[in-house]
Amino acid sequence: MKIKPKHILLLGITISLAFAINKTTPLYLETPKAWPKPHYDFSKNPLTEEGFQLGRNLFYDPILSRDSTISCASCHLQSTGFTHVDHSLSHGIEGKIGTRNSMTLMNLAWSKSFMWDGGINHLDVQPLNPITSPVEMGETLEHLVSKLQKTEKYPLLFEKAFGDSKITGQRLLKALSQFELQLVSSNSKYDKVMRKEVIFTEQEQNGYKLFKTNCASCHNEPLFNSEKFENNGLAIDTTLNDIGRMKITNKQEDYLRFKVPTLRNVQFTFPYMHDGRFKTLTEVVKHYNSLGKNKRLPKQLAKPMKLSDNERVDLVAFLKTLTDTEFLFDKRFSFPKE
Question: What's this model's pTM, rounded to 2 decimal places?
Answer without folding.
Answer: 0.92
